[in-house]
Amino acid sequence: MTDAISVAGLVKTFGRTRALDGLDLSVRTGEVHGFLGPNGAGKSTAIRVLLGLIRADAGSVRLLGGDPWADAVELHRRLAYVPGDVTLWPNLSGGEVIDLLGRLRGGLDKTRRDELLERFDLDPRKKARTYSKGNRQKVALVAAFASNVELLLLDEPTSGLDPLMEEVFREVVREERGRTVLLSSHILAEVEALCDRVTIIREGRTVETGSLAGLRHLTRTSIEADLAGPANGLADLPGVHALLVRDGHVKFDVDTPALEEALRALTSAGVRSLVSQPPTLEELFLRHYTGAGATRRTDPAGEVTR
Amino acid sequence: MTGTWQLVRLILRRDRVIMPLWVVVLAVVPMSYVASIDGLFPTAAEKAQYATTSATNAGFVALYGQLFGSSIGELVAWRAGFIPVVVGLIAILTVIRHTRTEEEAGRRELLGSAVVGRHAGLASALIATCAASLVMGLLLAAGMSGQHLPGTGSLAFGLELAATGWVFAGIGAVAAQLTDGAGAARGIAMTVLGVSYVLRVVGDVSGMTDGPLSWVTGLSPIGWVQAIRPYGDDRLWLVLVVLAATAALVAAAVVLSGRRDVGAGLLPPRPGPAVGALGSPFALAWRLHRGLLAAWTGGFVALGVVFGYLAEGVGDLVGDNQAMKDVFARLGGAQGLIDSYLAGTVGLLGIIAGAYAIQAMLRARAEETAGHAEPVLATATGRLRWLASHLLFALLGPAVALLAAGLAMGITHGMNVHDVGGEVPPLLAGAVIQLPAVWILSAVAVLLFGLLPRFAAVAWAALAVCVLVGLVGQGLGVDQWVLDVSPFTHLPKLPGGQVTALPLVLLMVVAVGVTVAGLTGFRRRDVPG
Fold it and tell me: Which of B26, B97, B225, B302 has the most C-beta neighbours closer than 10 Å?
């Protein structure tokens, strides 16, 4: 078993809405996997299918070697889930909720629980009614991280946390080596900092999947330079986009494979100064997001995006 | 108060189905009594005879209030004596739904950040509820005078129901300020309603026999509105009294609301334990249901004490009138009269317990829509186990409440007749025998929850059918098949009646079958569905 989660061709419709439309997702055992997508892309729906809460209409889904719908109870002993929108029983204290969820999952590490409460700076005696969104999220996070499970399904777990607590969250995830984590998120810095591999989905379909390094390969580096002479041939290079030339000042984006040749063109003209922006996940992300549903929209490079 | 009218429109938009529904139904049901009573008792003499027997039947007086005349209008208004309780309940639920529930859900905060005055939320809920009550009352008045009943009496009758809505809207508004949870606020307001009803029962039944407690009715808002006596004395000035009481309640609510923060109650929340003891879905369900169970059991014991205490007086009613004596002798004499009273009141408790059964079952749906079910079902808790934890309370909760009420009735009535040992068992039996019908209602709730979760609240319609059959049914000449729709029709009348096993077995089979269908549906459907 190398894959903790393997999903292929997953379809789920609600009435006429096709929430998931042939989703593929594979999460290797032991990795932290980023699950990215714009609002309404189907991330939460996919996680609910993985939890056996909703039934897939088509496609195959395997979770920890089992069928999430048929073997829900057995599988749930081995995983912990943090919902995107944590609501708690208003008249239960945070500590009660943590212990309840832990016991229902089949066990909680007491020392770890107390340590996490300390680190997340959460008062477990307060009634859930009085918690803010961030504090409710902390309750769910402590309950999940303190559980003795092998898989963590985290649905936008930091959306209500302050930057300090987000840092604590990152530390805790880094300590989780050995456990598999599926981290659905909007925060690219978080995904870049934590994840080994990512899957990007849009309109219920997987549009990109792979290691972060591999995905960077698909992105463009942007370069600005002051040149001694004219940059001959730069405009003809196939990987160069959005080229701007003004009085010896050039600005362009370049695909990673064409980087070397572009630099050679610059040095042959004589480089006075050079600024290069490394490829960011944001860029990749935006390229996939902004294309949503707008097949006729063109980006500044004049290239049609889909 | 800025923004009040926009909020009123929001309420009307959100309640666009339910509000017109209750306004029309509660106005039409009393209207329909005119034809049915006239049909059954066409002559003045027959009406007088019916009025005499009814006015001296403690069970009827307990249920509907005292009867002072025998004109068709008076009979109809008397017969509609339970409707103020329903109106009060709806007014309470509507006001709290649009005040405290909104606040608890955090939506009030969003609105409060807009150009909306501090009291606009409370004001809009009160305006909408009171206006709807008034429309209901005027509709009823128009419908009654349209059936050639006296105009003043019809207006008084309509205003009686409208005023009930007003005063309980005020009570709901005050209750909504006291706690930080909507459930607790509903509990407080419904307790006030229950106490009002019980005070009215005690006072009226005592007054019927010139007992010492007749003044107690004057403590009850339900007593006030019924004292308007439509088509009799037509004391329209009492409407002003009720209006003044409503104004006082609203003023109190405004003062209380001004003293607290948005989202907070008057009582500061206490810290809970840092380490939890809950470890199973059943422990969680116990935690979620225990308040409800305690409240219902407490209320049922109170009703049981009142009903039991009043039972002996029923037998005293066999006065000197020979015709009355003959009627009562046919009914089984004094003992038969007491038995039929006890059986009637236990049957009433059975229908009320049905409300508890539905309420307890719908907790499961509330847990689901609030997002509380999802984290639990994402643990090693099977769906059936989770649902069973709530079903347990929907089945056994009403059983506990009914047994407690039966026991309380048996003990109080037994103490009055110096035979506690002899009175308790038949009353316990009378209470237990209600359960198959109660469980049909919980089964309907499970079925809807499992198959049509978005329409789970329609289970209340099943209860409404039982209540309407119970209210309209008795002695108003409705076809038997209509009465047969209600499972409560098929129960033996205990104490005093004969028990036949077949109807009970059939009711149980239906209850089990429908419940299983609901459970199966829930296993197959999406959560949240």
Answer: B225
Judge whether residue B512 has pLDDT over 60: yes
**b/e burial code for range B209-240 (CB count within 10 A of at least 16 → b):** beeebbebbeebbbbbbbbbbbbbebeeebbe
H or E stretch covering B298: helix B281-315
pLDDT for B323 beyond 80: no
Indicate if the pLDDT at residue B449 is higher than 80: yes
In the chain, the amino acid numbered B55 is: A
Residue B42 domain-assigned (yes or no) = no
Scan residues 281-300 of B and list those with Cβ closer than 8 Å to A.
281, 283-284, 287-288
- Choose among B276, B383, B526: nearest Cβ to A96: B276
pLDDT tens profile B20-67: 999 999 999 899 889 888 888 889 998 998 888 888 777 778 878 889
- Residues B517 and B507: their CA atoms lie apart, in Å, by 15
Q: What is the mean pLDDT of residues B435-454?
A: 96
Instruction: Return d(Cα B482, Cα B178) in angstroms, integer.
Output: 43
| Residue where one domain finishes, among candidates B240, B266, B292 | B266
Position B136 pLDDT exceeds 90: yes
* pLDDT for A200 beyond 60: yes
Stronger pLDDT, B71 or A255, i.e. the higher one: B71
Q: Check pLDDT > 80 for residue A1.
A: no
Domain interval for residue A255: 220-278
Query: Distance between CA atoms of B184 and B206, rounded to whole angstroms?
Result: 32
* Residues A197, A251 within the same domain: no
In this structure, are A181 and A69 located in the same domain?
A: yes
Closest residue by Cα to residue A31 from A210, A171, A262? A210
Q: Are residues A18 and A123 in the same domain?
A: yes
Tell me the pTM.
0.78
| B375: contact with A, CB 8 A cutoff | yes
Q: Give the residue on B whose Cα is nearest the Cα of A54.
A: B526
Asked if A61 and A88 sit in the same domain, the reply is yes
On the question of pLDDT at B393 being above 70, the answer is yes
CA of A49 to nearest chain B CA: how many angstroms apart?
9
- Residues in chain A with CB shorter than 8 Å from the CB of B273 are 93, 95-96, 125
Mean pLDDT of all residues in chain B?
88
CA-to-CA dists, residue B27 to B88, B137, B168, B514, angstroms? 14, 7, 18, 33
* Residue B489 and residue B516 in one domain: yes
Q: State residue B182 phi and psi, 5-degree precision.
A: -65, -35
Question: Residue B330 — very low, low, confident or very high, per pLDDT cuts 50/70/90?
Answer: low
Q: Is A306 part of a structural domain of the chain?
A: no
CA distance B2 to B233: 42
Written as one string, the DSSP assignment of B168-195 is HHHHHHHHHHH-SSHHHHHHHHHHHHHH
CA distance B127 to chain A (A): 29
